[in-house]
Structures are given as C-alpha cells and as structure tokens.
Amino acid sequence: MTDRALSANDPENLLALAQALRAEVGTEYHDRLMESIYTDAAQIADHAVTRDGQGRRLYFDRLLDRALTSRVWGFPIMVLLLMVVFWITIAGANIPSGLLAEFLNGTVYHALHSVAAALALPWWLSGVLIDGVYLATAWVVSVMLPPMAIFFPLFTLLEDFGYLPRVAFNLDRLFKKAGAHGKQALSMTMGFGCNAAGVVATRIIDSPRERLIAIITNNFSICNGRWPTLILMGTIFIGATAPPALASLVAAGSVVAIALLGVVLALGLSWFLSRTWLKGEASTFSLELPPYRPPQILKTLYTSIIDRTLIVLWRAVTMAAPAGALIWLIGNVTVGGVSVGEHLVNLLNPFGLLLGLNGVILVAYIVAIPANEIIIPTILMLTMMIGRSAAVQAGVMLELDDAQVYTVLTQMGGWTMLTAVNLMLFSLIHNPCSTTILTIWNETRNVRWTAVAALLPVGLGFAVTFTTATLARVLGLV
Amino acid sequence: MTAKTLPTGACETCPVAKNATLIKLGLNVEGWDYVVALAGNPNTGKSTVFNALTGLRQHVGNWPGKTVARAEGGFLYKEKRFKLVDLPGTYSLLSTSVDEEVARDFILFGQPDVTVVVVDATRLERNLNLVLQILEITDKVVVCLNLMDEAKRHGLTVDARALSRDLGVPVIPAAARKGEGIPDLLQAISQVAQGEYVTRPHRIKSRDPKLARAVEKLALEVEAAFPGLPNARWVAMRLLEGDARIVEAVRTRELGNLSRGVQPQPVRREADVVLETMR
C-alpha cells in the first residue's frame, strides 16, 4: 500500500515539520486549544440559552442530592435501600418459588417420566434427558426466575431514577484513597449486573494502571449469576435462624452484608495492588451527577423483565442443559462400582471440608465455570446422586421448595451453618466465569494479568473460607 | 371521518405523517445507503435516540459511561437505508481513554455520512465542547438538542435557531424519551446525508496568532501530503499536539485512504462482540 516511490510528499517530512512546530509553540498548545474551545462554547451557549429563574423541582433535586451523597447519611441510606430491595425480593419470591418448583420439578417432571415410560425409552436416555437436562434447567428456572423478576425491576428503577451515580459519588472518595480511579466506582456498579460488562465498562478509565486495578477487582461485584445463590443460602440457612416475622429481613441483611464485603474487598485489593505491583498516583476526575428523572415505571418493568431477567435466565438455561446431562452422566457412569461423580467428589472432599465446604461444592464450582447461575442446581443434583437416596431413584422428593432444599442439604449433604456461610463467602470470592475471563483477556491482551485476575480471587477465596472454617472449629461453633 | 375535514397541508406538517416513512430495521443493517454515527456526552440520551430510530432495546441507564462499545442498528427512511452506530459517550475527543478512542476513530476513519451529536439542553455549554471538536473533524453534522423537557423543568429556554446559526449545522430540539423531535431529526439526517442541507460548520477560533500560524502552516502541508483530506486543519492540530494515533495514521498513510474516499471498515474489537452478545 505504501507506494513510496510515487509520493513526492514523504509523510516523515510532514511529521518532522510537525515536530519542529511543536517545539516552537511549546507545551502550552493543548491548554490554549482547550481555552479556545471553552471560550467558543461559552459564547455560543450564551447566545442560545435564557434562564427564567430556578424551578422548584431543581431545589428538590439539590435537597435530595445533599442527603444521598452526604458524608454522614450517604452510606446508611445506601445500605438501607439495598436492604429494602433485597427484603422485597426475598419476601416476595418465597411463594412463587415454591409454586414454580412444585409445578416444574413435580407435575411436569412426573408427566415427562410417564411419557418416557409410554414410549418405552431406554433408561439411560430418559435419565440423561429428564433427570439430567430437564431437571437442571427446571431448577435453574425455579431458583432464579422469581427473585430475579423482582430484583431486576427494582434495581432498574433505582438506576433509571439516577441513584447509581450517587453511589459512585459516595464510593469515589474511598477508591481514590485506595489509590484507584474514582470511575472504578462506576465500573464496579456495572459489575453488579454482569462482571464481563463491568470489565468492558473500565474503558472509561484512561490510566492503564488504574484500569487494570478496576478489571482485577470487578469480580468482587456480585453478578446476576451469584445473587440467586446468596439469596437462597441467606433464606434457608440464615433467615431461618430468626423468628419467622424477621426471617426475610435477616436473610436480606446477610445478602447485603456479603455485597458490602465485596465492596470492602474491592477497595482492599485496589489498595494492595496500587501499593505493590501497580504503583502510582490516583488520577483526579470530576464525576457528573445526572439529574434525577422520574422513573418510567411500566417501561422499566417491561424492559427489565424482557431484556434482563429473561436474557439472564436464558443464558442460565443454555448453560444448565448441557451441565445437567454432564452431571447425570458423571452420576451414573461407574468405574469400579462407584460413579465418576462420586470419585470426583471423594477426591475433593477432604480439601472441601478443610475449607468448611465440601467436595460437592467444589465439583459444582468446576462444572459452573461457564456460568455461576448453575451452582445451586448442580449442588442439589450432585448431593442427591451421591447421597444414593432411594427416594431420588424412585423419582420422588424432587419438587423441592426451600424447606426441602434445606432438608436435602443438611440430611444428605451433611451441611451445617458453616457450609452455608462459607458457600456465600466463596460465591463472592472465587474465579470469574469463563465469559468474564475471556473479556479480561480481550481488554488487556495480556496473559499475565488475565491469569492474575482469574487466580487471585480463587486463592483469596480458599484463604478466607479456610480461616472462617478454622475459626468456627476452634471456637467450637460446629 | 375527521381526516376529510382537515386541510391537506396539515399532513405535511403532522409528525405522524413524517414518522410514517420511518421503518425501524432493528439489527438489520445490510445494504445500507448511509452510515450515521451517534455521538455525544455521556448520559445525554444517545441510547434512547438510538432505540427510537432503530426499534432496538439497547439498555438505557441514567448514568454516564453506560455505553462503552459501539452498537449498531438500522432504519429505513424515505426509501433509503441508514446504518446507525451508537458511539460511547465522551466529553472530548482529545484524551486517550479507550472509549474516546472508539468514538474518535469511528468519526475519523469510519467516515460516517452524518454524525448526530446528541447534546443535553440543560448543560449546553459543556456539551458544546464536544460538538466543536466534532465539527473540526466532519462537516456533516446534525445536533440533536435532547432533554428539552428537562430544560423546561429547570426553567431554561434554548433557542435552537440561534444555536443552528452559530454552529452552521441543523439543530433539532427533542425529548427522545417521549419521542418528541424524532421526525424532525430524521428529516435533518436525511437532508444532510443527501447533501440537500449544506452545512457551514463553526471553526474553533485560535486566539493566539502564533498558534494560528503554526496550525495554518501545518494544515497546508497536510493538505499537500493528502490531497482532498476533509479535515486537514484538525489533523494539523492533532499533529501539533503529538497525538500518537494520528502520527501513526500519517506514517502508515492510513489518512490517505480518507482523502481517496476508501471506506476502511473500523476494526471491530472482540470486546464489542462479547458485549453485544450479552445484551
């Protein structure tokens, strides 16, 4: 393409001239240019805009901002709002979750088996299809759909109203103190939906150092795939310890606590990184607080249910279907009289127990690398298969509502409060899903940092769960 | 019916009639006649305008920095197919963060037929900084003066005609959330794309004669090296500032393609694809 011979004007000459002129005009060129732009912009805006005093609504906006971004009240209000959102989610999802589980894992499941029997399908085929693929997807739907159908619209309403930038504004100070970029607060907030999206959102950060910090720590924003795990554990283990009237509130509190711990970890790790491998000064920037906008409630409900809930659910289902087949296979293909799944679980069990988890959970986290959404169904299916329960073989006890999930986990899986708490912790602190890892690679194009972003959290997760497990054992809590 | 009693002229001015010629094509962007870029500061409603034109449901959030990758969609207006590209929101095109680069590279190297700059009517002055920079790169600009409803709420009146006079490009007042102004915006896009509306873009005035001379001198050389380049002055300003990307584009003669009207397809970053599939 570069037909040098034909061109009289060598680009290098042009660049040399540019260099010479740059030396001549000096370094203030950028500032002068900006000055010119600002002056022109101010003049033109002045021609076009007239103001007739301030409206009352603006006064209201200011008042609201003063409260929501106040040094004293900003954080308590944030925690309170999160509590309310999760409380509504947990209290509201309870009944539909049970009904859905009864229908999908009971009625439909039995109907499918009847059809399979009528068609005289071989046992392994109906096993893979019904006990594997169907059951895993049905569980994903019944575990995830109700809480998400409540949580997403609520969250989107807050977003639409303009609350998220206020959260970022509150966190901005802290991130700067941690040696990171204030805009990290925004990419972190984005990560609460999806970490891959959060990682891409770090493009708004100009300094490569601060961008890397934001990418590595984005994993500590709990994503769509992980909220259901936390909500279920919070409900059946932690909420259940409180009197029934307070159960939902306590459950919501435990979920919020984990989410906040994520923020603390993101800050802590940012601080650590900016003082070790990614040393440097925090850059300053000004965060624009957008005006409050009255949320468009119906539109928000529609788009958050269609675009967010169903899309996330669809992703979970597409991941759950092959995972279900895989789980059924490893549960039914035997080597030396014991299923492959059981071999795997037994292999990982000692390490799992050391962490206050168990082998099933660790196998589930390996199976769920493509999508965290399928953690709970995987754990349940593995627990029941490894439990070798006659009930499972006979196909009963599958319409698991929350109480039955609790029974299965404690009776067949031998779970304790420690297992539940550590699962919540590990859900927060483990490797990013494969989509996020791929996105990190795409954004950084660097094997080393991709590896750090993938392995650092899982190492930290092992350390944290080991510590809590050891503490619980030393203190005689389990 | 009532339609019979209306004077026939009413149809031409009625927004519904104008809108009737708009066919939203969603993700279908094949065989387009014109490429339209959608630029603007963060959180000015670019995605809302994008959705209104394409019928897509790109997630819209009330916070800056939501769109960091490009999103594409299409629409059919008056029998012409338009491909619409939603660019990341940026405050300027001068610094070096990835989102600004994505936006700048598309406007410069993608050579859209029209660039629509969505501006926030309540924060006009700051939004104009970006408009002025875009006007240096391309003549074919339409300004969408969005959030007029909010400006009203804040007690602000913005004179779109005065603004249009000063900027030398069409300025269309709009409240995209309510669909107001979209028909006029379509018409302006179509007129600028087809050259029916000839713009006379505002140029940034250099107040320092020494700098003005330097820019002028360098612009002449750029013009000589790349005859027919539509934005020699802007390239000169960037070279004077030592913009690495532009220096590279000069060195590799990538800029030469622009003057020859060759349409290099901007590189599609993997991350854009990942993000798009997740939406």
Describe this structure in words.
- The complex is a heterodimer of chains A (478) and B (279).
- With 478 residues, chain A is mainly alpha-helical.
- Chain A has one domain.
- In chain A, 74% of the residues lie in helices and 1% in strands.
- Chain A has 20 helices and three strands.
- Chain A has helices at residues 11-25, 29-48, 56-68, 74-118, 123-161, 163-177, 184-191, 195-201, 208-217, 227-238, 247-275, 297-332, 340-354, 359-367, 375-386, 390-394, 402-412, 417-428, 434-444, 447-474, and strands at 49-51, 334-335, 338-339.
- In chain A, strands 2-3 form a two-stranded antiparallel sheet.
- In chain A, a hairpin with a 2-residue loop joins strand 2 (334-335) and strand 3 (338-339).
- The longest helix of chain A has 45 residues, at 74-118.
- Chain A is globular, with a radius of gyration of 27 Å.
- Chain B folds into two domains: 14-202, 3-Layer(aba) Sandwich (Rossmann fold); 206-279, no CATH class.
- In chain B, helix 10 crosses helix 11 (232-241).
- Chain B is globular, with a radius of gyration of 19 Å.
- Strand 1 of chain A pairs antiparallel with strand 7 of chain B, so a sheet runs across the interface.
Write a concise synopsis of the structure shown.
The complex is a heterodimer of chains A (478) and B (279). Chain A has 478 residues and is mainly α.
Mean pLDDT value of chain B: 79
Number of domains of chain A: 1
Termini separation of chain B (Å)? 44 Å
Count of beta strands of chain A: 3
Q: Please give the largest β-sheet of chain A.
A: 2 strands, antiparallel
According to CATH, the fold-level topology of the largest domain in chain B is Rossmann fold
Q: Which CATH architecture of the largest domain in chain B would you pick? A: 3-Layer(aba) Sandwich
Main β sheet profile of chain B: 7 strands, mixed
Q: What is the CATH homology-level superfamily of the largest domain in chain B?
A: P-loop containing nucleotide triphosphate hydrolases
List SSEs of chain A in N-to-C order: HHEHHHHHHHHHHEEHHHHHHHH
Overall pLDDT level of chain A:
83
Low-confidence stretches of chain B: 1-9, 262-279
CATH class of the largest domain in chain B: Alpha Beta
Q: List the total number of helices of chain A.
A: 20
Question: What value does the Rg of chain A take, in angstroms?
Answer: 27 Å
